[in-house]
């Protein structure tokens, strides 16, 4: 009664539903029963389920993961990428000890013949037999098998055999479970693309009818017993439906008296030092890490004796990120990091150099070039209770993981009404020298999506502090880094970057230079262009600029900015994001509304040109320059 009622209450968007009605009719789930989020995006669970299997494998949890997806999802990227990630050779050839062996996952395709209005067999697909696809994945052919989905005994037998394969660490497994979809894809689908004769022919094989007849023929029970079952089902559903649609018993969320009810669920804003209480598996004591020893010899401030410290001696921004990550690997036993080039060559741009010596393969590993699966699997890993840091190398590759970031990573905390957590950090770097597809600042795209925290540190002190905050929290963080400043030293904290642990609160901007005539608010590496502009303004025009580094984009506390504008009366906002549609324009509007009485002129946004990013040799015509800010 509980299960049926609460499911229907969720479907009817009632606060008494599993997720207070926020999951709605397409996303009902109940984790205590092992039922994880149902996905409204076709194939959306394909790579998320792989992350759940990773969590079981890495953290030595019992059980298996079953990804129930449809035959049409075989045309979806998350499924193909998820299968690639699930079938990586490294599990069997590079992972060691008890971690050696395949992932505990079954990709169970409900092959119901249709996807939307397209017939998969004979029209929109070319495999004819879905199980055949397993042959192209690995030597074991994913132990693929076609099963009669209308025969419960056949399904039970198949799952028992495949479960044994999983227990022997020989996964992943693919099941082609043959069935049929009697109704349309949705209430608006009239099924006009198929004949009544086809539906009737399949109805004759319906297991509710055909299997019942077999049980009667085998004298398991008589017709009267099955009729009694049907009556009980009808009574149960009717009773639960009446309760779930009664406004007095099952009210909807009261957004009139509590308008922030959903807003309060967007982020958990919790701090959890470690997701599980146990020893961290590492290869060497942290103090013996060769890179950490090298860093200890560096100058932790960028200015010494009034002069800039040379790049080969200064503690760099990449060192700051490394230091925060290394510390967390020795604190949180569930933490894993993966992506492209993570274990080789010190990771992209040498940020991870030194982690290979410290971590076993199951905590730091390379993945296929499957950005969707990289992020999607991190979602599944986090949903199950782990913490993950994944890297997409270039900010531009966010587009390859669009659904996973914008529809999955960002939404499940709120859609679960806070029952699920999402401790995932997605690292992306912004370049400026590789042209149109590798040098874009997409901070505004991420800022537009509710449910994501977005940060962009521009100094070593802030990079370490913000990464520490991101790794202590339970919310998804898109962590932007600029390749332009990976090797820069700390110019603003004269005492340098502390060796110990500290946090920079996400959402708090920082005044990098005090002034009285104009405020300049920057995001990312543009901070240093603004400093050049401020120097020219002072030397040539006698104007004192106050420079504020946003550090975070979402959330963002405007107090320091408003106080500065009250003093200066003018503000320029600058970043490397294209000016059109830039999040800075939203910030400028907010500043106008909050500080209208103090502004002597409208806020001005200085962003990159609304072009493709040109070649490195032309970048000074594209990215904001000091003279643009001065102008």
Can you give a write-up of this model?
By secondary structure, the chain is an alpha/beta fold. The termini are far apart.
Brief digest:
The protein is an alpha/beta fold and 631 residues long. It has helices at 2-11, 45-58, 77-86, 90-93, 152-167, 196-203, 207-217, 223-244, 290-296, 317-329, 371-383, 402-409, 412-415, 443-448, 460-472, 526-541, 559-568, 583-594, 626-630; strands spanning 65-70, 105-111, 114-115, 118-119, 145-148, 173-178, 303-304, 307-308, 336-339, 364-366, 388-394, 424-430, 453-455, 477-482, 510-513, 518-522, 545-549, 552-554, 571-578, 604-608.
Mean pLDDT: 94
Strand count, sense and barrel status of the largest sheet are:
7 strands, mixed
Please give the order of strands in the largest beta sheet. 10-9-11-12-14-13-18
Q: In percent, how much strand structure appears in the residues?
A: 5-15%
- How many helix segments? 19
Topology record:
Blueprint: H1 2-11, H2 45-58, E1 65-70, H3 77-86, H4 90-93, E2 105-111, E3 114-115, E4 118-119, E5 145-148, H5 152-167, E6 173-178, H6 196-203, H7 207-217, H8 223-244, H9 290-296, E7 303-304, E8 307-308, H10 317-329, E9 336-339, E10 364-366, H11 371-383, E11 388-394, H12 402-409, H13 412-415, E12 424-430, H14 443-448, E13 453-455, H15 460-472, E14 477-482, E15 510-513, E16 518-522, H16 526-541, E17 545-549, E18 552-554, H17 559-568, E19 571-578, H18 583-594, E20 604-608, H19 626-630
